[in-house]
Specification:
By secondary structure, the protein is of the alpha+beta class. The chain has one domain (14-161): Glutaredoxin, CATH 3.40.30.10. It contains six helices and eleven strands. It has helices at 50-60, 62-67, 80-87, 110-114, 165-181, 200-209, and strands at residues 14-18, 22-27, 38-42, 71-76, 103-105, 118-119, 122-124, 130-132, 137-138, 140-145, 151-157. It has a seven-stranded mixed sheet. A two-stranded antiparallel ribbon has the order 6-9. The longest helix has 17 residues, at 165-181. It holds the Pfam family 1-cysPrx_C.
Length: 210
Protein backbone atom coordinates (compact mmCIF):
# COMPACT_ATOMS: atom_id res chain seq x y z
CA UNK A 1 0.00 0.00 0.00
CA UNK A 2 1.56 3.31 -1.10
CA UNK A 3 1.82 6.41 1.07
CA UNK A 4 1.37 9.35 -1.27
CA UNK A 5 1.13 12.16 1.28
CA UNK A 6 3.61 14.89 0.39
CA UNK A 7 4.01 13.62 -3.16
CA UNK A 8 2.49 14.62 -6.47
CA UNK A 9 -0.72 12.74 -7.14
CA UNK A 10 -0.29 10.22 -9.97
CA UNK A 11 -1.45 11.63 -13.29
CA UNK A 12 -4.01 9.77 -15.35
CA UNK A 13 -6.36 10.15 -18.29
CA UNK A 14 -9.43 7.93 -18.56
CA UNK A 15 -13.06 7.81 -19.57
CA UNK A 16 -15.62 9.16 -17.11
CA UNK A 17 -19.26 10.00 -16.65
CA UNK A 18 -19.89 13.65 -15.73
CA UNK A 19 -22.94 15.75 -14.90
CA UNK A 20 -24.99 12.69 -14.11
CA UNK A 21 -24.95 11.04 -17.51
CA UNK A 22 -22.49 12.48 -20.05
CA UNK A 23 -19.69 10.10 -21.04
CA UNK A 24 -16.39 11.85 -21.78
CA UNK A 25 -12.97 10.59 -22.86
CA UNK A 26 -9.60 11.56 -21.42
CA UNK A 27 -10.82 12.87 -18.08
CA UNK A 28 -7.87 14.07 -16.02
CA UNK A 29 -7.22 15.81 -12.71
CA UNK A 30 -4.72 18.02 -14.55
CA UNK A 31 -7.59 20.40 -15.34
CA UNK A 32 -7.73 21.35 -11.64
CA UNK A 33 -4.02 21.97 -11.03
CA UNK A 34 -3.44 25.58 -10.05
CA UNK A 35 -7.18 26.11 -9.58
CA UNK A 36 -8.88 23.71 -7.19
CA UNK A 37 -8.15 21.20 -4.46
CA UNK A 38 -9.66 17.77 -5.14
CA UNK A 39 -11.16 15.05 -3.01
CA UNK A 40 -10.55 11.90 -5.06
CA UNK A 41 -12.21 8.77 -3.72
CA UNK A 42 -12.19 5.18 -4.89
CA UNK A 43 -15.01 2.68 -4.35
CA UNK A 44 -15.08 -1.06 -5.12
CA UNK A 45 -17.99 -1.75 -7.46
CA UNK A 46 -21.09 -0.39 -9.14
CA UNK A 47 -24.44 -1.97 -8.24
CA UNK A 48 -23.40 -2.84 -4.68
CA UNK A 49 -24.56 -1.84 -1.20
CA UNK A 50 -22.17 0.32 0.81
CA UNK A 51 -20.93 2.12 -2.30
CA UNK A 52 -24.18 3.94 -3.19
CA UNK A 53 -24.48 5.19 0.41
CA UNK A 54 -21.07 6.80 0.06
CA UNK A 55 -21.71 8.26 -3.39
CA UNK A 56 -24.99 9.80 -2.24
CA UNK A 57 -23.34 11.10 0.95
CA UNK A 58 -20.78 12.98 -1.14
CA UNK A 59 -23.54 14.32 -3.39
CA UNK A 60 -25.47 15.53 -0.33
CA UNK A 61 -22.41 17.54 0.73
CA UNK A 62 -21.34 18.55 -2.77
CA UNK A 63 -22.49 22.16 -2.39
CA UNK A 64 -20.34 22.50 0.73
CA UNK A 65 -17.28 21.19 -1.09
CA UNK A 66 -18.00 23.56 -3.98
CA UNK A 67 -18.33 26.52 -1.59
CA UNK A 68 -14.73 25.80 -0.64
CA UNK A 69 -13.69 25.57 -4.29
CA UNK A 70 -13.02 21.85 -3.86
CA UNK A 71 -13.81 19.32 -6.59
CA UNK A 72 -15.10 15.83 -5.80
CA UNK A 73 -14.18 12.97 -8.15
CA UNK A 74 -15.04 9.27 -7.76
CA UNK A 75 -13.26 6.28 -9.30
CA UNK A 76 -13.99 2.58 -9.62
CA UNK A 77 -12.72 -0.16 -11.92
CA UNK A 78 -16.10 -0.50 -13.67
CA UNK A 79 -16.66 0.77 -17.21
CA UNK A 80 -18.17 4.08 -18.25
CA UNK A 81 -21.22 2.17 -19.48
CA UNK A 82 -21.63 0.54 -16.08
CA UNK A 83 -21.39 3.92 -14.34
CA UNK A 84 -23.92 5.37 -16.78
CA UNK A 85 -26.33 2.48 -16.25
CA UNK A 86 -26.13 2.79 -12.48
CA UNK A 87 -26.84 6.51 -12.76
CA UNK A 88 -30.15 5.69 -14.43
CA UNK A 89 -31.34 3.68 -11.40
CA UNK A 90 -33.28 5.62 -8.71
CA UNK A 91 -31.82 5.85 -5.22
CA UNK A 92 -34.74 3.94 -3.69
CA UNK A 93 -33.87 0.99 -5.94
CA UNK A 94 -30.19 0.94 -5.06
CA UNK A 95 -29.03 3.28 -7.81
CA UNK A 96 -27.09 6.52 -7.88
CA UNK A 97 -29.43 8.70 -9.90
CA UNK A 98 -28.73 12.34 -9.08
CA UNK A 99 -24.95 12.07 -8.67
CA UNK A 100 -23.42 15.04 -10.52
CA UNK A 101 -19.68 14.87 -9.83
CA UNK A 102 -17.41 12.92 -12.21
CA UNK A 103 -17.15 9.13 -11.90
CA UNK A 104 -13.98 7.83 -13.55
CA UNK A 105 -13.79 4.40 -15.21
CA UNK A 106 -10.50 2.76 -14.23
CA UNK A 107 -11.01 -0.21 -16.52
CA UNK A 108 -7.26 -0.71 -16.96
CA UNK A 109 -6.85 -0.89 -13.13
CA UNK A 110 -3.77 1.30 -13.48
CA UNK A 111 -5.23 4.32 -11.66
CA UNK A 112 -6.11 2.24 -8.60
CA UNK A 113 -2.68 0.64 -8.77
CA UNK A 114 -0.90 3.99 -9.02
CA UNK A 115 -2.74 5.26 -5.93
CA UNK A 116 -1.96 2.04 -4.06
CA UNK A 117 -5.58 0.97 -3.51
CA UNK A 118 -5.90 -1.95 -5.94
CA UNK A 119 -7.06 -5.09 -4.16
CA UNK A 120 -6.48 -8.55 -5.54
CA UNK A 121 -3.53 -10.48 -6.92
CA UNK A 122 -1.82 -9.33 -10.08
CA UNK A 123 1.50 -9.24 -11.85
CA UNK A 124 3.08 -7.32 -14.73
CA UNK A 125 3.79 -9.02 -18.02
CA UNK A 126 6.86 -8.29 -20.15
CA UNK A 127 5.05 -5.35 -21.75
CA UNK A 128 4.35 -3.81 -18.33
CA UNK A 129 0.64 -4.63 -18.55
CA UNK A 130 -1.31 -5.89 -15.56
CA UNK A 131 -2.28 -9.55 -15.67
CA UNK A 132 -4.98 -10.55 -13.18
CA UNK A 133 -4.57 -13.68 -11.10
CA UNK A 134 -7.52 -12.83 -8.86
CA UNK A 135 -10.25 -10.20 -8.37
CA UNK A 136 -9.00 -6.64 -8.97
CA UNK A 137 -11.12 -3.87 -7.50
CA UNK A 138 -10.34 -0.75 -5.49
CA UNK A 139 -10.35 -0.47 -1.72
CA UNK A 140 -12.18 2.56 -0.30
CA UNK A 141 -9.31 4.98 -0.73
CA UNK A 142 -9.67 8.75 -0.33
CA UNK A 143 -7.08 11.39 -1.23
CA UNK A 144 -7.13 15.14 -0.59
CA UNK A 145 -5.03 16.80 -3.27
CA UNK A 146 -4.11 20.48 -3.00
CA UNK A 147 -4.16 23.07 -5.78
CA UNK A 148 -0.61 22.22 -6.74
CA UNK A 149 -1.46 18.56 -7.24
CA UNK A 150 0.21 17.35 -4.04
CA UNK A 151 -1.50 14.77 -1.82
CA UNK A 152 -2.08 16.20 1.67
CA UNK A 153 -4.25 13.50 3.23
CA UNK A 154 -5.17 9.90 2.50
CA UNK A 155 -7.16 7.11 4.11
CA UNK A 156 -7.86 3.58 2.89
CA UNK A 157 -10.71 1.45 4.24
CA UNK A 158 -11.44 -2.18 3.63
CA UNK A 159 -14.60 -3.08 1.69
CA UNK A 160 -17.09 -3.33 4.60
CA UNK A 161 -16.16 0.04 6.14
CA UNK A 162 -17.89 3.12 4.75
CA UNK A 163 -16.23 6.51 5.08
CA UNK A 164 -17.24 9.66 6.93
CA UNK A 165 -17.88 12.44 4.41
CA UNK A 166 -17.96 15.08 7.16
CA UNK A 167 -14.38 14.10 8.01
CA UNK A 168 -13.35 14.60 4.39
CA UNK A 169 -14.91 18.07 4.50
CA UNK A 170 -13.14 18.81 7.79
CA UNK A 171 -9.81 17.93 6.21
CA UNK A 172 -10.50 20.36 3.35
CA UNK A 173 -11.19 23.05 5.97
CA UNK A 174 -8.01 22.19 7.86
CA UNK A 175 -5.88 22.35 4.72
CA UNK A 176 -7.34 25.69 3.68
CA UNK A 177 -6.95 27.10 7.20
CA UNK A 178 -3.27 26.14 7.19
CA UNK A 179 -2.75 27.58 3.70
CA UNK A 180 -4.43 30.87 4.63
CA UNK A 181 -3.08 31.34 8.16
CA UNK A 182 0.13 29.35 8.37
CA UNK A 183 -1.12 27.75 11.59
CA UNK A 184 -1.45 24.03 12.20
CA UNK A 185 -4.65 22.31 13.27
CA UNK A 186 -4.71 20.25 16.49
CA UNK A 187 -6.72 17.09 17.12
CA UNK A 188 -10.45 17.37 16.48
CA UNK A 189 -10.04 20.89 15.06
CA UNK A 190 -13.21 22.28 13.47
CA UNK A 191 -13.74 25.20 11.12
CA UNK A 192 -14.02 28.44 13.11
CA UNK A 193 -11.65 27.31 15.85
CA UNK A 194 -8.17 28.67 16.48
CA UNK A 195 -5.09 26.97 15.16
CA UNK A 196 -1.62 26.63 16.65
CA UNK A 197 1.62 28.31 15.66
CA UNK A 198 4.27 25.72 14.92
CA UNK A 199 7.46 26.68 16.78
CA UNK A 200 9.95 24.59 14.84
CA UNK A 201 12.88 26.76 15.94
CA UNK A 202 12.00 26.26 19.58
CA UNK A 203 11.80 22.50 19.12
CA UNK A 204 15.16 22.48 17.36
CA UNK A 205 16.75 24.48 20.19
CA UNK A 206 15.32 22.12 22.80
CA UNK A 207 16.56 19.05 20.97
CA UNK A 208 20.04 20.48 20.50
CA UNK A 209 20.23 21.34 24.21
CA UNK A 210 19.11 17.90 25.31
Amino acid sequence: MSVLVGKKAPSFSAGAVVNGGEIVENFSLDQYVGKNPVVLFFYPKDFTFVCPSELHAFQNKLAEFEERGCKVVAVSTDTEESHWGWLQVPKNKGGIEGIKYPIVADTSKTISDAFGVLAGEYEYDIEKGLVATGPMIAYRGLFLIDKEGVVQHQIVNNFPLGRNVDEALRMVDALQFFEENGEVCPANWQKGESGMKADFEGVAEYLSAN
